[in-house]
Structures
1.
Amino acid sequence: MLSVAIRKQINSNNINFSELKPFIGKNVIITITEEQNHSEKLESFSDFFNLAGKITIDEESINKLREISLI
């Protein structure tokens, strides 16, 4: 299965991607995801790092999972 990722700013309703030529005549799924701007990315990282020291880890459960994974 061939796949391609393209990063572009969309400026109109009509878009042309030369990278899609290998897919002409094939059934494909096209997904468009809006990128976060830089400040939104930093904000999400700060949320992550703010959790440091606030998460309780159940050592017993981790040890049980390790034992199971050795099987």
2.
Amino acid sequence: MKNILILRAFLVVVMALFAVSVMAGVFVDWRGGFHVTYPDDWRVVPYSEVSSFLEEQGLDVISIDYDVVLAEKEAQPFQSGAYVFVALHETGALSARQIDSVLKSVAEVQFLSISEETLDGSTSLTKDKLIFDRKRQAAASYSNIKTATTDKAYLEIRKFYEKGVALFLCYAPQERFSEVKAVFLNLLETFSTRNLKEMAPKEDLKIVDPATRVRLASPTTETEPPAAGQGEGKDSGSKSIYIVILAIIIAGTVLVIRLKKRITQSGRDR
């Protein structure tokens, strides 16, 4: 009887692992040295599609240092549904004190209080706090971006690890945020720096390099960028939203520069 129970438990685990492998895709960020898992009904958005959209917003594609955009397959154009910009701040590993300094700076800029909590699907996200999960070495803040033409929920996730800070800028129509919140937070749950080659899809064995985006942006991919005005177009992704993306990435870079200066100055003072 005991052996039967053990066998059943083993089969349940195997089936669960099989289900995960079938139900999910993996994005490997070679520059960042990590990988994350996303649902099988999501996709990696071609650079050409993202570039076309950002250019419509009047933004310089090359200056926005992101590594990938993940989005729902059904959303055409991608910005009409839920999606995530993945970016990286290469600072090297930060100490606990340095992480606290970064969080304090972010909270001050965004007028938030810092709350230490566990970040998972059950976490209550409110507009007034920056949640820090010390065990996972990650922070998240939630806000709403509302204009005359759009109403977006915005979740910003920072993951501190040995190479620096991985940044996940998550967007969704406000009315669907509770539905996709778990997908966003699962990026943090599945974040790993191990076994990159084993986890990478065969067709994905290439390095993410912002300098190659001009070449990648040429219309040679299977998915063509949406024409101007097609679908929800600029209505679902107004300039203000993408200015926020740019501002956050720049703000993060500024914080990194300030942090490096503090570290250098403290070393001289000693």
3.
Amino acid sequence: MAKLRRPKPRQKELLLPFKISEKTKLFLPRSIGERMFADVEYIKQHHVDYQPLTTPSGIKLTGPSVLGKIISLMERYTRKTNFFLKEANEHELKFTQQINEHLHKKGLPVESFLEIYNEKGRHLMLVEKKGVSLFSISEQRPLTENEIRGWFHVLGVLNSLGIAHNHPHLNNFFRVKNQTGVFDFKLAKAKNIDWKNLSEIINFFSEDHTQIINIFLRHAIRNPEILQKVKERKADDILIELLNPLPIDPESKNTILRQMNTFLYNVLIPNLREAGYLRYKGIEL
């Protein structure tokens, strides 16, 4: 059972005790708790199982229980702050904690849990965001080559632990002091990989590789220097960041790299060209 971590003195100034049921009192960011109070009380008074419900502030919620609707509501509110609320079962919680311990030992930034609560077997984790997500950065300007390399590297480190993230989009990676971190392991899977079995490696990490290359291409298009590398088929020195942390021989890395290039140039680029995306962006590839 995860131990309840009470807020430190600095955190107490930011957090407000918030009772969500007879059993659980959740410390929420003050800005969230004060605005959310009326909505939560409304849910408790007007809740009907499985029926949609609209709170006084206009948020529409569905779900089979009062607790479920309150959790959903808190998730909506925390998205607008430096905190976010995550729900996990016992296995997911322990899995996340183990991954964070391994990543921390590798010198990488990890998400910081302020509180862990247990309500009927459902763990509610209040997490303080660190740094800025790569997605937020990409909304303001194109990602730099260094930021993309960091993104590939941290996923490679995660893979080297025998863990496939399976959802490596930019919102799940963040930058802190020129380092890249990763979180949200709800879809992640772990396996005792045989690092001499190339076909096992390729199959287990295929979702990570195809997703990250797809996202990479769409963001490479926005950076003229990286786009030029893609045009000249010289992006290998960026893609290899995903494979360098893996405990495999150079020949295996080159084999996987060739497959990644095949997917990039023979599948993704033709698909974007056929869909008119490249023409819309004014790009020739």
